Amino acid sequence: MDEEKKDILEKHGYALTGEESGVKLCHWVREKLIRGRSCYKEDFYGIDCHRCLQMSPILDVCNQTCLFCWRYQDYSGRKKINFDEPEMIVERALEAQKELVSGFRGDERCSEKMWKEARHPNQVAISLSGEPTLYPYLSDLIEAFEKRGMTTFLVSNGTKPQVLENLDFLPTQLYITLAAPNKKIFKKLCVPKTEKMWEKLMESLEILPTLDTRTVIRHTLVDGWNIGWESDYADVIDMGKPDFVEAKGYVFVGDSRTRMSIKNMPSHEKIKGFAKKEAELLDLSTLAEKKDSRVVLLGKEKAKIKIS
Fold first, then answer.
1. Count of the separate structural domains present in the chain
2. At 131, which CATH number?
3. Which residues have CB under 8 Å from 238's CB, separation 6+?
4. Phi and psi at residue 176, in whole multiples of 5°?
5. Beta partners for 285?
6. Averages of pLDDT over each 10 residues, the chain, 308 residues
7. Taking a C-beta distance cutoff of 8 angstroms, is the pair 44, 291 a contact?
8. Domain that holds residue 152
């Protein structure tokens, strides 16, 4: 990554952990430490969000430029990328997280106990920026985190099915983003860089039931763009047979504000309406919802939500 991009990312609050990797403190870590408010992943799945490390092994490499993405997007087509080694990423990421939460100590709103816990993450979200399945040592990275007793949530756009199929170490929970009900909307909203990426996403959904891990298909719902095709979504989701479906609304934050309007943020009621129709088509139940995160969780068994 060139120095100019590194400077931009650091100004945006990223802590770089190598030439291509980095960590950024999640908004909900701050909310939990200061106000005691938890994120929907804590409420749904039982993780401690103040102990969640948000990172990416490849901040500057992605094969889509989704219009709703809040990340800094300037993914150039570099011919040579010096990928960071997994062990180095993990060690530096853990150290970076300690540094990022250091300023909360002494704030009367943050307990000493919770601050100490935040310095020792036990959960990692591999979802910060870029597409993680383009990182060639992804399986080793997951293994390195899990060897340290951490749960791992991997978020992918699903366009590299062969990577998911060949992972030696699967994450604790695998997310596949399904932000479009059909190829036409996918091309306009997710802006793939090469052809056949919709077809690759469909391949990933087809292999999803064969992967021995918890699986989630997540919608990013953008008002005026991809809401209202519940039947089409249901047909696609049925291929993947995920453990859960998250219907989550787009939020007007970050760099997405240069491409979207605040009007593209759906209300929670609209998200609930979408989720209800989809649940009926898929014979699923509404297991949980989080209004301030604009998300509804669908699935079959509420007892299986929590990570054991």
1. 1
2. 3.20.20.70
3. 282
4. -120, 125
5. 299
6. 83 91 94 95 94 94 90 68 95 97 91 95 93 96 97 97 97 97 97 95 97 96 96 96 96 89 96 97 95 94 70
7. no
8. 3-304
